[in-house]
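User: Modeling request: complex.
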Amino acid sequence: MRSFPQYFSDLFGGIRSLLTGLSVTWMELWTKKVTQQYPENRKTLVISDRFRAELSMPHDDNNEHACTACGICQMNCPNGTIRVISRTLETDDGKKKRELDRYIYDLGTCTFCNLCVISCPSDAIKFTNNFENATFTRSKLVQQLNKEGSKLRAKKPVAKAE
Amino acid sequence: MILNYSQPLELSKLTSWIDTALQSALPGFWVLFIELLLVGIALLAAYAVIAIILIYVERKVTAFFQARVGPNRVGKYGIFQTIADVLKILIKEIIQINRVDKFLFFTAPFFMVVASMLTFGVIPFGQGLQAIDFNIGVLYVTAVSSLGIIGVLLAGWSSNNKYSMIGAMRSGAQFVSYELSAGFALMTMVVLSGTMQLGEMVETQRYCWNIFNGHLASLVAFVIYLISGHAETNRGPFDLPEAESELTAGYHTEYSGLQFGFFYLAEYLNMFIIAAIAATVFLGGWMPVQIWGWDAFNQLMWYIPSYVWFFGKVGVLIFFSLWVRWSFPRLRIDQLLNLEWKYLLPINLVNILIMVLIVLSGLTLTDIFGK
Amino acid sequence: MEKIKQIVLDTVKEAVFDEQERLIVTVSPKELHPLIKRLKENNDLPFDFLVYLIGTDDGEQLTVTYLISSSKNPSVEIILKTATADRENPLLYSVTDLYETAHFNEREIYALLGIRFINNPDMRRFLLSDEWVGFPLRKDYNANPALNPISVESRDIVDLAPRIMETENGELVEEIVKIFEDDDYIINIGPQHPSTHGVMHFRTALDGEIVKKIDIHSGYIHRGIEKLSESLTYPQILHFTDRLDYLSANINRHALCMCVEKAAGIEVPERAQYIRTIMDEMNRIDSHLLAWSAQTNDLGATTAFIYGMREREIILDIFEKTCGGRLIINQNVIGGVMFDIYADFQKDVKAFIPYMREKLKEYDRFFSHNVIALGRMVYIGNLSKDDAISYAVTGPAGRASGWSCDVRKHHPYALYGQVDFKEIVRFQGDSYARYLNRLDEIEESLHIIEQLIDNIPDGDFCAKTKAIIKLPEGEFYQHVEASKGVFGVYIESRGDKTPYRLKFRSPSMALVSVMPLICRGEKISDFIGIGGSMDYVIPDIDR
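Assistant: Request completed. Predicted assembly structure:
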C-alpha cells in the first residue's frame, strides 16, 4: 500500500508528463510539414545521381555503345537478370568477331546490387536514377538496352609501337 | 434584467416562420406531422454533415500534428476527400461471413447509430434549435448514450472472431466504468444549476459559465467529464476496444462496407455528442459570451448567431480531443480501470460533495457577485 | 587455453584438438553433452553463451558445430564438433537443457539437415513445414519442385510436438506431446498482423487478457539464402546480406565482407574503414530510430512513429546520395566500399548530428517520461541476465538485462578500437530499459560519427581484389554488432570460389525465442509492447 502523499505526487507528476507531451505536439502543429508532394514537385525533385533505379547502356550521338558482348555482367549477376545475346560477324579481313545483338535486362528480377556495373571491363553499362518504372504488365519490365541499329564504338586509335 | 437581443441570422426565425405558415394552411394534426418529418430530416442531414466534416477535420488536424499535410488530392486542400470516401463506402460490397450470428451481426451497427442519433434530439444546437427540451435532458443523454455499448458487445459476440470478442469485452468493462464518472460529473453540474433541463441549463449560464461558477470543483468535474467522455467514445488513448496494433480492429474487424461505415460514423458522432454535451453543460452552450453590465458588448456578441457560438465551443473541445488522441500512447486495460476506479471515481465523489457544500452555503460565483 | 584443454581432456579422453584461429575440439556424440556441461559449470570461466550452432553435411557424415563462449570473458571461444554417420535416422544429443537458444537452432537443423536431437522438448521442424520432402542443406537434396508442390489448400494447425526422450536407463522413447491444453483459448497473432513486424506467427493461449503460453511458428518468408549461397560466388552472396535484417543492412554486409577479407587476406584501406564505420553507425541510428518508432506505435502512439520516420528519412537521403540505395544500400564490397563518399557527405552528416540530438530531447519529452508510456514499459517483460545469456539475447535487449555483450567493445573491428564510446548497459531488464538503451545508443553512435567524420583520410576506398575470389580451405567466422545484436557469418570453404557451407547467425532468432518466456503472465497488449521493445526483424530469422 502506497502512502497518501505518494498518491498525489503520482497524480500530479503524471498530469505534468502528459502536459509536456501535449506541448510537444502543439509545437509540431506549427512546424513545416515534411511530406513531399510527389507528382507536383517532379520539376524540382532532386534524385541523387548515384541512385540505382534501372540499368541502362549509354549511347553516344553516333548511336554507338561500348558493349563488347563479353558476357561478364551476365556471369556476375546473381539473379539471371541480364542476358547478353551476341552474333558472330565476319569482318572484311576474314576474322571472326563477336558483336552484341541484343542486351536483355529484366528489371523485375534485378536486385540493384551493382555487380554488373563494377565488373564491366569497358564501362558500357551504368545505373540511372530514372525511378519511375511502374508498368502495368510484368513483361514490360524486360527491356532491351541497346538501341536498334547501334553498334560498338570503335576503340580510340592506340599509337602503335612500331 | 435579462436582455434578449434579436439577431437577423438566427435560425429560430426560419423555424417559427415555417410553423406559422403551416398553421395557417393546414389542420393541427398535419402541422405536427410535417414538422416532425422536417425535424427528422434536418437531424439526419445534420448527422451526416457533421460526421463528414469531423472526419475531414480529424484527418487534417492529425496530419498537422504529425508533420504531414493530410488529404490534399480531392478538391482544394482535399475537402472533398471524405465525400469521396463516403461514396466509396456506400458502393462497397458487404462481405457475407459464413459462421456469424447473422441477425445480431446485422443489428449491431444499427444500435450504434441509433444510440447516437437519439442523443441528437436533446442537444440545443442554438437558440430554439432543439428538437425536444426535456425536463430530464441530462438523464436522457446519459441513458441513451449508453445504448451504444450494446452495439459493440453484439458486434463482438456475433462476429465469431476472437479478436472481436476480446475487443468487445474490453469495451464493456471500459464503458460501464466510465459511464459512472461521466454521470457523476454531469450530476455535479446538475447540483450546481439546479436543473436537468438542458435548455434551462444554458439559460442559467448566461453571465457565468458553469465551469467557473463552482470554482475548482466545476473545473475538476469538467476535466473528469472530458476524460471519461473520451473513454466512452473509444478514442485514443482509450481506444482499447479497437487497439489496431493489438486486435487489428477490435469489435468491428469483420465488418465491411456500409456496416463498417455505421461504426465509423457512430464513433465520430459520439465524439461530437460528448463535446456538445460538455459545451452545453459546462461552457454555456449556444449562449454568446455575456458580461454583466457591459450592455454594448453583450449586444455585439448577440450579432454572432447562437449556433455559431455552439459549434465554436464544440469545435474547441473536439480539437482538444484530437490533440490528446494523437499525443498519447494507449493504456492497458488494467491501467484504464485503475484510472477510473482509483483516481476519477474517488475524486468525483469528493468533488460532488464539495459542490453540494458550495451550493448550499451560497458560495458560487453567481451567488457572490450576481443578481 | 591450456587450462581449458586440460578440462576437456579430463572429461573426454579421446577428444581431438585442432588449433586454428580458435580451439576446435572434436568429440563423439555421446560425450558432447557431458563435455559442454562440464565447460558450462566451470567456475573460473563458465562457458554459458552458445554463439552459434551449425549443422553441415560433410558428404559422408552430418556434423554439428558449436561455438561456445563465456559471458564473463567473450574473447575466449571454443568450437566443439560432433558428427553422425547415420544419414537415415541421424540422432544427436540436445543441449537445450544447458542453453535455451539451442532449442530453436536444433529445430532448424532438423528441418534443414534432418538431424533429430534427443531430449529436445519439442522436435518439430522450424522454418519448414512438417510435410516438406527432403532436407535442403544436405548435399544430396533433390530440389525438384514437383516434390514439394505449392499447396493452395487450407490446412489446420496441429498443436502436437514429437520428441525423443532418453529414459534413465538409456532407452530412447519417441513420444508426441500436446503444446496447448484442450480448453485453451488460442488466438493467432500473425502471420498477418500489424504488430508482428513481419510475417511471424504466434499461437497464443490466453486466460482472459493474460498470455498463458506462446507457440512460435516461423518460416513464412524462408528463402533458403544459406542454400542459395552455396552456388554463388562471394561477391554475389553479398547482396543477400542486406536482405536478412534489412534494417541493419550495411552492418550485416560488413560482417560478410570482413569474413571473406580475413580468409583471403585482403587488406582494407584506411579510408574504407572510416567510411564503413561511419556508415555502420548511421545504419545503427536508422535502425534504432525505426525500432523506437515501431515500439511507440505498438503502444498506440502513432504520432511518435511518424516523428521517428521523419528523422530516419534524413539518414536514408544521405545513404541514397552515398551509394544509391536507401534501405538495401549495397555499400560494402570485398576489399572496401563500392562508392566513395560524395562531396557534401561530411557537411550533411555534421548537420544531422546536432539535429538528431535536438530530436532525441524531443523524444524524451514526448514519450520517455509520459506516465502512460511508463506504465506500459516499466517492469514489463522482465528478462533476467541469466535468461538473456541462456537464450543468447544480445544487442540492446541483452544489454538492458545487464549483460555486457557489445562486440564493438569485446572484439573491436573496423575502427571501433580507436574511437571512444560507452557501452550502454542497464540492469532492469524490462521493456523500458530496452527502450532507453536504444535512445542512448543513438547518442553514442552520434558521438562515434563525430569523432570520425572530420578525420577521413585520403586514399583508396577499395582495395584491388582478384576478379574471382577464392578462399583457402577452412572455417571462418566473423561477428559484428548489428543493431539487433551479434550478427555472425560462418563460412566453410573447400578452396572454391563458392562456399561449401555458409551460415548467418541471426540476432533476431534469439530475440523471438525469448518471447514466450518474458510474455508469460503479461497482458496481451503488453505482449505487443514487449515485441516492440525486443525489435526483431523476421527476414533475419527466416533467412
